[in-house]
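PROTEIN ENTRY
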Amino acid sequence: MGALTIAAKYMIVAQIEVNGTVDKSDVIGAVFSQTEGLLGRDIDLRELQLTGRVGRIEVEITERDGKTQGRVYIPSNLDRYETALIAALVESVERVGPYPATVKVIEIKDLREEKRKRIIERAKELVKIIEEEVLPDTKEILERLKEDVAKAEVIEYGPERLPAGPDVDKADTLIVVEGRADVINLVKHGYKNVIALEGISKGIPQTVVELSKKKTTVLFVDGDKGGEMVIRELLKVAHIDYIARAPPGREVEQLAAKEIAKALRNKIPAEEWLAQQRQQAQQQAEQAAAQAQQPQLSLPFDASKKVEEMLGTLEAELYDASWSLIKRVPVRELPDFLASTEGAVYAIVMDGIVTQRVVDLAAKRGVKLIITARVGPLAKMPEDMKVVTFEQLAKKSAAV
């Protein structure tokens, strides 16, 4: 099993310099291998991770002029004396892979102190919230007044007694919204040529259908799937000229004056909306066809057990096309192994980070599948290679 997630007390921050080009996994491997057993089992990083007293080691590195520099972060739940001992232990690392290296601890953060500061700052914010709720400002009072006036102006229109603004009959343009709250919000902000559908579960009101034939009609709906459903249903029976949407995830009744104006300004012709829907449907069909042509991931072993077996080992397993194990090597040695040995490799399972270097070397060996703990930034991927993370593999296994 891998390192436990812990609520750390301290964070050891160390600076590392390597006289050569290495990956993050190489640095982590060096820290574990070169400190193992130095101070006995009680102060062994791998054992401390397994018991949750030391968290997952994180590394940030940059490469320049053939050298690697960066920082190593080690969360600790030990006391301050043991944490200091771990920090000194890490400084004993002298090599990363084949290259000389130096490690220097530059800081041991007390994370509890930072947490206390955040709590105090949040308390200050909550005090302000209490004060604002108890003593509403002038702007809030005015907003309440506008809403009360808007509610008084909303009328009932047509035989269905639909909520509407007072200028529905007078105006040449009609704004159709979903519900009464939307009407109130638009009337509050000066849009009085508005009418609500009041739901479509019982069908589109005939009053709206008839008005759409006589006036330039703008359908203004929420930015969610419900709004999209309203558009589809209304276009079947009414003459809609333009479609406006609230921002994604927002409702028309929530919008401020500037947001309403912007949404209406960005309205599009109904024909354009329909064209966009046809294009999206075509793209989805093409993607589905492409996915159907891709080979399904078939493994000769239980995915969840394999993930549990590999996590925390910092090792890689290489398989041939018949899924016979070729070799098991430390992740830090994987690039050298791929570069120096011959013979085809079909798949790699590794408790490490897939980098562009690993992908390039694997492609030369004919690798078709890499199953990995994490994936680093990749600029290019071979078309015939698939990279799957442990997390994705676990989800596929659970879905079966």
